[in-house]
Structure formats: structure tokens, C-alpha cells
Amino acid sequence: DGGITQSPKYLFRKEGQNVTLSCEQNLNHDAMYWYRQDPGQGLRLIYYSQIVNDFQKGDIAEGYSVSREKKESFPLTVTSAQKNPTAFYLCASSTSGTANYGYTFGSGTRLTVV
Amino acid sequence: AQTVTQSQPEMSVQEAETVTLSCTYDTSESNYYLFWYKQPPSRQMILVIRQEAYKQQNATENRFSVNFQKAAKSFSLKISDSQLGDTAMYFCAFTIQTSGSRLTFGEGTQLTVNP
Fold it and tell me: What is the helix, strand, coil percentage profile of chain A, to 5?
């Protein structure tokens, strides 16, 4: 079955460490996205990519980095520069270069700083 | 900037009753698409319903329907015959043609269906 796989489901990070969240899709979707979810703040866009080898900053890109070397993969690195990384992270994808039909979402990664 | 506002952080309803969740948005564009997503306790985001702004007819999906008021920039979700499985966080979202592929989300409404 086609879908989006995020791993790991839970991730613990020590202060000062970089961590990478994985997102893989087999839907043949062109565009991929990373959102952060915090209580009472909805979903906020971190980065998005509409084609391979290209990506754009979203509204809260500081302290994060991404790469898009393959169409299927869009990993997110949470760097030590991100001051408050504890959150739920959602990866999504969409066909073509628009969101007119909405997104397909992964099941998320819960990141906790310890 | 495009914004979405959900003014009801929490709502509750009795099983089998009807409930309406509110959503307002702000954009100067005329061509856009609106969505309601459901996030149950599993946290998997599920598309509930989609509305094209240029269509006057309100979208319906089984027990879920919307009241789309374009002039008022309002997009409410009505859930009829509420079921325990409808308990979830509900997010309103929209995208405009000129935004590329970005979806803007509201803050969410936590709906609890009581037996």
C-alpha cells in the first residue's frame, strides 16, 4: 500500500545534539513538507520541497535543515540551534506542485529533549 | 498573510447529536481550497472534507458537511449523528493558488463525543 513512513515514532535528544527525522513516501508525490505541532498552535510549516534538489523555508525554519536528494525521501535535521525542539513533527506529501487536493500525512515523530 | 482562526479550542457533544465547528479565514485571493482534517488520539491526520471556493454548493461526505460562506470568509463543519469515533482534534486549513503548495492550518478544536 502507498503511504508515508516516518521514523522513529519517538525520539529523545540530549541538549546540544543534532537529530534527524526520517520521512519516506512511495506515492510518487512531487512535493513534501515538514510541520511542527505544538498544543494550541496548530501546525506550523518548517520546510517544504516541490521538486528534487530544491526546498524552501517555511514559517519556522530557524534551527532546522532538510535535504531532498531523492523524490521519495525528505529528512529533517533538528540542530542544536533549535531552542525548543520538543514537539510532534509531521511529514506530508502532495501531488504536483499544488495542495488543491490536500496532503497525505505520515504518522508523526514525537521528539523530546532530555 | 493568509490566516485561519478556529475560535473554539474545545467542544463536547452527546452521542447521536449534531455539532458544528467554526472556522474563519483571511485572504485577498478569490481562488482557493478549504479543508477539514481530523486527528484522533492516534495522531494520524485524516482528510475529512474538501471545498473548492469557486463552487457555491457546500461539500458533503456522509455525516460530515460544511457551511461555506465566501463573503463572510467562514467555513464551518457540521457533524451529524455524532459517534464516539468522532472524538478527535479537528483542523481547518486552506491553500491559495498563488501559494504554491502550502496549506495554512488553524489552531484546532478538540471535540469530545460523550456516550
Answer: 0, 50, 50
